[in-house]
């Protein structure tokens, strides 16, 4: 089935350990006086039917954002592939009419607002099974569209084969890589290190117009 806003659920990935940031929650790192999670919600919500948040630990810390918080179904901080599986299984159990999972890491505050539209069109055009974003000749496997129907295959790969690398798993399927323009900076610029926060602040003014009082 073709990807539409109505049959795609969005998963915000915030389950990492943020080691290169010194630990803690990237979701609460502030940029322009707002937490990174705010920007992710703002850009992802219009693209999907609903949003959930993948995060481990005490879910109460995210209460003010008003999203269902779902912990990894594979223990031991198994990486973003565990988040994908978590989102697939949660969607199958709680939103049975949804056929696609769209994943958005919360540490890339400038990701495109037409991400799902363009990746969905590429899946149709190429008769592909899934899609991920690409910019500057780099792929971004965590900005992707995943068919919920593959949830059992992914669980088997993670549990029986100890699969952890996204690219190794997606190589088993027909995946289309969708290029995005970098003329105004890489839209998938992400905040991995403390110095990246300053870089993001410098880009902020040209991307977000101030909201009138």
Structural domain tally: 1
Under CATH at level 1, the class stands as Alpha Beta
Note the main sheet.
Answer: 7 strands, mixed
User: What would you call the structural class?
Assistant: alpha/beta
Order of helices and strands: EEEHEEHEHEEHHEH
Strand order of the largest sheet: 5-4-1-6-8-7-9
Summarize the structure.
The chain is α/β, with parallel strands linked by helices and 213 residues long. It has helices at 36-44, 80-94, 115-126, 151-160, 166-170, 194-207; strands at residues 8-13, 30-31, 34-35, 51-54, 69-70, 100-105, 130-135, 138-147, 175-180. A hairpin with a 2-residue loop joins strand 7 (130-135) and strand 8 (138-147).
Defining key terms:
213 residues; globular; Spore Coat Polysaccharide Biosynthesis Protein SpsA, Chain A; alpha/beta
What would your notes on this structure say?
With 213 residues, this protein is of the alpha/beta class. It contains six helices and nine strands; from the N terminus they run βββαββαβαββααβα. The strands form two sheets. A seven-stranded mixed sheet has the order 5-4-1-6-8-7-9, with helices on both faces. A two-stranded antiparallel ribbon has the order 2-3.
